[in-house]
Fold this protein.
Amino acid sequence: MAVDWMRRHDRSLLSNAFSLLICGLLAGVVVAAAAFPVVAMSGLVAKAGADSFDKLPSALTVQQSPQITYVYASDGKTQLSTFYDENRRDVRLADVAKVMQQAMVAAEDTRFYQHGGVDLRGVARAFVANQSAGGTSQGASTLTMQYVREAISYSATSPQDVVDATSDTPGRKIREMRYALALEKQLTKQQILERYLNIAPFGHSAFGIYAAAQVYFGKTPANLTLSEATLLAGLVKAPSAFDPLTPAGLKLSVDRRDNYVLENMVKLGYITEAQRTEATKAPLSFPGHPTPNGCTSVVNNSWGFFCDYLYRWWLQQPAFGADTYERENRLKSGGYRIVTSLDVNAQSAAMKNILSQRKIGSPDALMLTGIEPGTGHIQLMAVNRTYSNDQSGNGANTDANKRRAGSPGNYPKTTLPLLSEGGYQFGSTFKMFTMLAALSKGIPLSTTINTTNPYVSKYIIDKGSPAACPGTNKYCPVNASKSEAGVFNMWAAFGASVNTYFVPLEEQAGAQNAVNMAKNLGITFNGDPNDSNSDAYRARYGDEWGSFTLGVSATTPLQMANAYATVAADGTYCEPLPVLQIKDFNGTSLDAANPRCRSAMDADVAHAATDAARCPVGDQPFFPECHGATASQTKGIVGKYPVAGKTGTTDHDRTAALIAMTKQSAVAGIIADPDNPLDTHYSHTEVNYAVQHTLHDVMVGKPAVNFVKPSDKIAYGTRVGVPTVKCASVDDATNALKGAGFGTTVDPTPVPSDCPQGAVAKTSPSGSASKGSIITIFVSDGTGGGPSGGPGGGGGPGGGGGGGGGGGIVPPGPKPTFCLPLCRRN
């Protein structure tokens, strides 16, 4: 495509007299040397000129002129912005007011319907007039020749082609004449007029009559009045000089309209003198406005960050060109109609909820992104920032080093892709990846672990790290609360966010498997993979990354929303997608808008993880195994819709995050300081409120769709009988239980039992349990009063029936019948 800035859209009011002489000379040669009796020409010159003219190419190859691309919200009606190098949208002549068609002929070529592309009479008249004036007082280009000039410019393949097409040289005029004569034989006058109206420059980046009518008068070309049409027609000669939006230009453009365009329309019989007078007296106003271009001029500023993601996404798509230059060029000149996935109502709700917690002037960024499960469609991208390139009034950078270096803060204005690039630590929301890896490996939800605080893991860490066991290089995570010690299954541990459950679970599942699961769900890891301090390096050697499950890797709200959306979509991963439909200039729908999805895990794994993820947000899973929640208000706020999710907090509360999801939407939110993400302290109050209420607002009007119940097998695994150890010694009971494939823990508080003091009173669970589960041993206080009869004692996560009775160790018999927690017990 030609280099746009080199095109000359103001036709000079003064042109070279010598050029006109040559043009007149050659035009005369075409018909007869007699057309210019004042010019002496020998027969030899005439013959040579005619031969040369005939050898010029006559077939004009016209490329599609640049067309504006329109971008709409998901409703297909709300315009977000436009992209263009030249603001142009071609229209049919039938959609242009008749007075506009006539005004253009009156302004540019009164003999348009009489000549065959080159107006010999006009050439002669211009030559004589210019000779008499001693300079240039008239031009000789016809409307067809002017169209040819613009068409050659838009079909240029190099900057030199643009220069050749627009320079005032005899050669250019001759070429235009040759093409014009040929074009008149190929197209009708109405077709030529339509093309010219669509290609002519009108100033203020308006090219073609559609853009001009919008920019100046805020209407379509079909609705232009006589007064408006004649003013626009007069601009084409010199759009800058006649600019009606400046006082001097307005005076010149009105004078040209009144005394030239309207006068010619009367002469041509298009209007009466009375209509002319009326048009000159009609009040002029310019209610139009510049057409938005790009993301900094979106109709609503809160849409800017989504628009920016759309733009970046487009540049990455091979369907739009071989490289980013070609892709951007097509976006700005291809005339696409893009219907995006942005739900303006959801976006508005997100901004309302964000701003109720953090104002735009705050250095803290409260960021929300929403994704539709099963498609990857981005529903919202909101943050308490103004999307703007003008950051001159921004606050001080909260990072002292950056501040000393003169770098301003990113608030209140920025164009940084805060929601989709860079990243922040999302804390315990990463436990989802460990849980998925464990479930994929066959480790059921009922798996119990006796959590300690701290937990001495197998992972190696720097001795100087605060996460190291004192005096060692062992990674020793702790819990947020002492109450998080004890026996937990996966439901309860995910609900209460027990760190020292998920690190040993990560050991069982394999840390690299957890990292790979995150990758499979679209999480990327920043930095140089050869730099041992980077996330990319740690992900490369994931088996050594013990802290991964606690969310120490930096990622974005967009990636986390999409990862959780994958789980909600039964394990189907879809690339984040900002578009619903893309149509090219010809109205053809493009495949680039289609969701790009694949299976990321077994569906039952996703169902099981979702079941556990209902615990943190106060919902009830299919198996009633929740014991605690970190964002229990979520279910009540979201309402009738089944909901799942997870909170996340980093060390020292440097960030706070919440992800909540239904079957129709996954909303990820985080509060952090983009300038200085490692030196701020947050509570969950603000981010929880914003996420919970936004998900509620997104779901209004949608049907309640339940999650899918996981299989009994993935919930409880392979059930095996628990040996009866009532009244046995603790050591004997421990050995028997371990021999049956269970882990054990001893509850420190004695319980009433008819067994001897210090002997085993009961176990929990009893009867049967998932292989590998932790069996809790309760010790008798010897006072009697405990349960009697039958094998067992006590319930618990995944546990079975009660009763004490008997004594000593009874090996498990045939696999007993057991009742899952939701079935009715008699």
